[in-house]
UniProtKB/TrEMBL annotation, chain A:
Keyword Cell inner membrane (UniProt): no
GO CC terms, sorted: cuticular plate; plasma membrane; stereocilium tip
Membrane topology qualifier: Multi-pass membrane protein
Record-given protein name: Transmembrane channel-like protein
GO terms assigned for molecular function: mechanosensitive monoatomic ion channel activity; voltage-gated calcium channel activity
Biological processes annotated in GO: detection of mechanical stimulus involved in sensory perception of sound; regulation of calcium ion transmembrane transport; vestibular reflex
TM ranges: 258-281, 337-357, 431-452, 472-493, 505-524, 592-612, 651-673, 694-715, 751-775
Taxonomic source organism: Aotus nancymaae (Ma's night monkey)
From TrEMBL, chain B:
Entry annotated with the keyword Cytoplasm: yes
Region Disordered, residue ranges: 43-65
Protein name, per record: Calcium and integrin-binding protein 1
Native organism: Aotus nancymaae (Ma's night monkey)
A Pfam match: EF-hand_7
Keywords for the protein's UniProt record, in alphabetical order: Angiogenesis, Apoptosis, Calcium, Cell adhesion, Cell cycle, Cell division, Cell membrane, Cell projection, Cytoplasm, Cytoskeleton, Differentiation, Lipoprotein, Magnesium, Membrane, Metal-binding, Myristate, Nucleus, Repeat, Spermatogenesis
Cellular component terms per the entry's GO annotation: apical plasma membrane; centrosome; endoplasmic reticulum; filopodium tip; growth cone; lamellipodium; nuclear body; perikaryon
Keyword Manganese in record: no
SUPFAM superfamilies, A to Z: EF-hand
Record field: compositional bias (Polar residues): 43-53
MF terms (GO), sorted A to Z: calcium ion binding; calcium-dependent protein kinase inhibitor activity; magnesium ion binding; protein-membrane adaptor activity; small GTPase binding; transmembrane transporter binding
Length: 906, 231
């Protein structure tokens, strides 16, 4: 720390010196100058000797240099020269730069050391000074050229690396653009000049090539990024919503868009690898029984009402599991469709898991230590509560109101945190509310179970009505529609804080949806088992029919009988397709109910409120019905559960994902329109980010829960005997074994068998548990260390407080002066000039003292920057004397903050 | 450094992309916004030609002065065309026009934001590059560090490098809006500021400095997602 501070001081002085030099001859500066004077003889010698060859060398600058000992000298000289001319040419433009260069050649002999010192960009300057003593000692030992060049090459390499780092991090520096531009050009030019000089002999070309490639790569990456952002759809829509409703409502739409992307990938996977190969290469429709509508249904198979229920032709299409044949390979590609079907089913889940976990991880990366967020409640409210995306004055007014309320609330909380009023009543009400809600949940679960059971009865009966056919879906959708508001009403009893209330509400809706989904699944599973039990008899009937058909009398024996028409073959119920159809219907009805709810609940209500307000006895807009608010949590949960159904159903109905993509697409447009046309911003504006990972967590949970039934059916239910890619197998996963046995070499099969051995899997699971335990304990200890460090910092601050208050005040006064003087540099030029050399030295000292208090130093410099920042750039000292002071400030600031981070160890 | 018109803008674009967190489209869009006819005031634009030769870009952009009308049309039709590039680089837009942007209209800190990002001597105008800086800091991909740095400067109403009690009370007033009913009373204000200082002022000097501010902000899960302006 101390030597670093010293270094800063030294540097600051050096720079002040450099800038003042043109107006006044260099005077003694012990700290800054000593290394420079040490290297004086050597550096002076070099340009003097080569002064005559100057122009020639300059021309030869970019061409490859000859392989002689002189090469490196040339290089070195070129470096010096380059460093010399870099800054003026930047700041002054080419004309002045040329003039200056002329001057410089004459000045070179006398002022070479100091010139180098001041004109090299500051980062290098520091470095160079550290290096110089060593290289000068080398020079004095008389070896001159070679070893010294090696040294310098290394140095250049280091500088180039540093410049590159600077270029890469430039964008995150809080400088004004003009300054960033200058710095960037400077650094780029430097890198361009010198990276050619690096590498030796043959290596050089390679190096240049590498650099070129790297540059191209950067360019390509940037273009690709641009392209990527261009491809993101609905940017403008979401932005509109953001500005009207704040980031929380927009977060739903961003989530919807993300979901759309995920579904597109799943859609591509399923369509590309399953549906399209089947349609192109599989047996055509009508060739085998499973691909044909049975005779009994043929008449009505094209009716809309039948198609709407996903019966008829749709049922016997590639959209459903039953359509696929169990042929091992199809088409001239010998595409292994059953295998592909299985693998796609697995990879749908694999991909979804991966993407959800990845986005969760990237969400958590930003926030560190959620545990301590409690300690900053007021500060967070103060500093982070404004949503800068809000661009609508109405929303802004709401936001003002909600911020005020939250301020007042937290003040009141702070003042009387333990004020309790009739705790028994509250407790009683809460228990009552929970009781009611549990009753609701159980009731809805039972209702669904009852309805699914009844629908199985209906399915056995002939000509059932439309309502009876769709009872399950209707009941489920209605429950989803009416239960959440009911819960909200009940929750009013509980008298929770709104945020806690929201969490409870979310949890309850989640429980409702989950309960409904699982009851539905259980009832479905019952149905499946029933169908499986019937399967044997149907199998016998099928065999018997076929047998009878081929062996029946009354046919000419000489002509072989034409095979039985596939439509006439009796067939099983194919429970997989039935499950797929259920999910398909559920998805579609869910979508319709959502749209109708939006249309009725939001749009018509808004129309009513808007137009009936003219002739109504009370103010509809402000009073009872009012406009609807956008229900973020309900919509997000709906989306999540819909996705869960897609995940579950996509194995049995490959077309389901396609339907879902359509659904998401339409709901994006429809909901955007509905939100903008008929909703009002929330009374309380919640922040989005906090709940973002919460939603993702729910999604992960739902994904896991929807994985379970699918895995269960794959692992433990026998597939239907006459439909689907796995028909005829004992279990669906047998397709894996079959492929391994038939298509892979035997040793691979052995390896797989070995891997699947429980003796290997159980230890692997144990190992994972151990790893989790270990990582958990590591993170615990790290957070402990964190807490201790924080304590230490606090203690340190306490100690330094007294120190700093004295010096800090002095510095503040000092810098206050400078602010004034530099902002009015035209009028107070005299003052500034006076201050230039001696006071700024003292000031830098003051700054250095301040730098010892790590907390405060940054801020002081940070605010100095904008003041001096408006001066275009650091001018070369020789040209303009009047602005000598402000640049020195800028540099001081920059060197102090930038350097401390980038300083190489020495 | 010269070159043909199209190359110039390409290079500049590349540099701007290096220096900001914006993509090409965003830069072009922001250029369009700044140079859009209703935003540029032309007399200033003419003046700024001489006034701002200090910056390298302005120096290069000494093409023939376009008539206001032609410029207007150009900006309307071809925002990425060279003339408009140069003209809009020179142009400085006064605050009122920036403040009337829909993105900033409702923001209580709009004046502060403009002041912080302005580099003109009087700090009442924004050049195109200042505007780019602004958008870059408020973009989605900007680092939390630079966001919090600028947030600090925006909240530092008197530009003295620390957030003292006056800054904080001004900040509270900004956040609670202009209307009377949402204002906090004096005692509430005092209580609030006391609490904030209690939490954030680690070194107990009565003010919040940049590092204390960044310490607090870095703990906040919401900050980076809400400190954002999309054009």
């Amino acid at each position: 720390m101390s030597h670093q501070v010293k270094g800063l001081k030294e540097e600051a002085r050096g720079r002040v010196k450099g800038q003042a030099r043109s107006s006044s001859p260099p005077t003694g500066d012990r700290l800054g100058r000593r290394p420079a004077s040490k290297r004086g003889p050597k550096a002076q010698g070099a340009p003097g000797r080569r002064g005559a060859q100057r122009s020639q060398k300059e021309r030869a600058g970019d061409s490859p240099r000859p392989e002689s000992p002189q090469r490196k000298q040339t290089e070195r000289r070129r470096l010096g020269e380059e460093l010399g001319k870099q800054e003026p040419s930047k700041a002054e433009g080419t004309r002045k730069g040329r003039r200056k260069r002329g001057e410089r050649s004459s000045l070179k002999e006398q002022t070479a050391p100091s010139k180098k010192e001041k004109e090299i960009p500051r980062k290098e300057e520091k470095l160079k000074r550290q290096k110089k003593p060593r290289s000068s000692s080398l020079a004095s030992s008389g070896s001159g050229g070679e070893s010294l060049s090696e040294e310098e090459l290394a140095r250049i390499l280091e500088q180039v690396e540093e410049k590159k780092k600077l270029i890469a991090t430039m964008r995150s520096k809080p400088w004004p653009m003009a300054k960033k531009l200058t710095e960037l050009r400077e650094a780029q030019e430097f890198v361009e000049k010198y990276e050619g000089a690096l590498g030796k002999g043959k290596g050089k070309r390679l190096y240049a090539c590498k650099m070129l490639l790297a540059k191209k790569w950067v360019k390509f990456k940037r273009d690709f990024d641009n392209f990527k952002t261009q491809c993101i759809p609905w940017e403008m829509k979401i932005k509109d919503i953001e500005s009207h409703f704040g980031s929380s409502v927009a977060s739903y739409f961003i989530f919807l868009r993300w979901m759309y992307g995920v579904n597109l990938v799943l859609f591509g996977l399923i369509f590309g690898l399953v549906i399209i190969p089947e349609v192109l290469m599989g047996m055509p429709y009508g060739s085998i029984p499973r691909k044909t509508v049975p005779r009994a249904e043929e008449e009505k198979a094209m009716d809309f009402s039948v198609l709407w229920d996903f019966e008829g032709y749709i049922k016997y299409s590639a959209l459903f599991y039953g359509y696929y044949n169990n042929q091992r390979t199809i088409g001239w590609l010998r595409y292994r469709l059953p295998m592909a079907y299985f693998m796609v089913g697995v990879s749908v889940f694999g991909y979804s898991l991966m993407i959800v976990i990845r986005s969760m991880a990237s969400n958590t990366q930003g926030s560190t230590g959620e545990g301590e967020s409690d300690s900053f409640t007021f500060s967070f409210k103060m500093f982070t509560s404004w949503d800068y995306l809000i661009g609508n004055s109405e929303t802004a007014d709401n936001k003002y109101a909600s911020i005020t309320t939250s301020f007042k609330e937290s003040i009141v909380d702070e003042q009387e945190s333990n004020k309790e009023e009739n705790i028994h009543l509250t407790r009683f009400l809460r228990v009552l509310a929970n009781f009611l809600i549990i009753c609701c949940l159980c009731g809805s679960g039972y209702l669904i179970y009852f309805v699914v059971k009844r629908s199985q009865q209906f399915s056995k009966m002939q000509n059932v009505s439309w309502y009876e056919r769709n009872e399950v879906e209707i009941v489920m959708s209605l429950l989803g529609m009416f239960c959440p508001p009911l819960f909200e009403t009940i929750a009013a009893l509980e008298n929770y804080h709104p945020r806690t209330g929201l969490k409870w509400q979310l949890g309850r809706i989640f429980a409702l949806f989950l309960g409904n989904l699982y009851t539905f699944l259980l009832a479905l599973m019952d149905d499946v088992h029933l169908k499986l039990a019937n399967e044997e008899t149907i199998k016998n009937i099928t065999h018997w029919t076929l047998f009878n058909y081929y062996n029946s009398s009354g046919w000419n024996e000489s002509v072989p009988r034409p095979p039985l028409h596939p439509a006439d073959v009796p067939r099983g119920s194919c429970w997989e397709t039935a499950v797929g159809i259920e999910f398909m219907r559920l998805t579609v009805s869910d979508m319709l109910v959502t749209y109708i709810t939006i249309l009725l609940g939001d749009f018509l209500r808004a129309c009513f409120v808007r137009f009936m307000n003219y002739c109504w006895c009370w103010d509809l807009e402000a009073g009872f019905p009012s406009y609807a608010e956008f229900d973020i949590s309900g919509n997000v949960l709906g989306l999540i559960f819909n996705q869960g159904m897609i995940w579950m159903g996509s194995f049995y109905a490959p077309g389901l994902v396609g339907i879902n993509v359509l659904r998401l697409l339409t709901s994006m447009y429809f909901q955007c329109w509905a939100v903008m046309s008929s909703n009002v911003p929330h009374e309380r504006v919640f922040k989005a980010s906090r709940s973002n990972n919460f939603y993702m967590g729910l999604l992960l949970l739902v994904l896991f829960l929807s994985l379970l039934p699918v895995a269960y059916t794959i692992m433990s239910l026998p597939p239907s005997f006459d439909c689907g890619p796995f028909s005829g197998k004992n279990r669906m996963y047998d397709v894996l074994q079959e492929t391994i046995e038939n298509d892979f070499p035997t040793f691979l099969g052995k390896i797989f068998a070995f891997l699947a051995n429980p003796g290997l899997i159980i230890p692997a699971i144990l190992l994972m548990f151990l790893a989790i335990y270990y990582l958990n304990s590591v993170s615990k200890s790290l957070s402990q260390a964190n807490a201790q460090l924080r304590k230490k910092i606090q203690a340190l601050h306490e100690v330094e407080k007294s120190h700093k208050s004295v010096k800090g005040k002095a510095t503040a006064r000092d810098s206050g002066d400078t602010l004034k003087s530099s902002s009015k540099n035209a009028t107070q030029l005299q003052l500034t000039k006076e201050e230039t050399s001696p006071p700024s030295a003292s000031q830098s000292q003051a700054m250095d003292k301040k730098a010892q208090g790590p907390g405060t130093s940054n801020s002081a410099r940070g605010t100095l920057l904008p003041v001096s920042g408006h001066l275009p750039i650091s001018r070369p000292p020789g040209v303009r004397t009047d602005s000598g002071h402000p640049p020195s400030q800028t540099h001081l600031w920059r060197s102090a903050s930038g350097k401390s981070a980038q300083r190489p160890p020495h | 450094m010269g070159g043909s018109g199209s190359r110039l803008s390409k290079e500049l674009l590349a540099e701007y992309q290096d220096l900001t967190f914006l993509t090409k489209q965003e830069i072009l869009l922001s250029m369009y916004v700044v140079s859009a006819p209703h935003l540029v005031d032309n007399e200033q634009q003419a003046r700024s030609g001489n006034e701002h030769t200090g910056t390298p870009i302005a120096e290069r952009a000494n093409g023939s002065p376009l008539s206001a009308r032609a410029h207007r049309r150009f900006c309307e039709l071809l925002p990425q065309e060279q003339q408009s590039v140069e003209a809009s680089l020179r142009a400085q837009v006064s605050f009122e026009r920036i403040l009337s942007l829909p993105e900033l209209k409702a923001n209580p800190f709009k004046e502060r934001i403009c002041r912080v990002f302005s580099t003109s001597p009087t700090r009442d105008r924004l050049s195109f590059e200042d505007f780019l800086d602004l958008l870059s800091v408020f973009s989605d991909t900007a680092t939390p560090d630079i966001k919090s740095h600028y947030a600090f400067r925006i909240f530092d109403f008197d530009d003295d490098g620390t957030l003292n009690r006056e800054d904080l009370s001004q900040l509270v007033n900004c956040l609670t809006g202009e209307s009377e009913d949402t204002r906090l009373s004096a005692s509430e204000m005092k209580q609030l500021i006391d609490n904030i200082l209690e939490e954030s002022d680690i070194d107990r000097d009565g003010t919040i400095n940049l590092s204390e501010f960044q310490h607090v902000i870095s703990r906040s899960p919401d900050f980076a997602s809400s400190f954002k302006i999309v054009l």
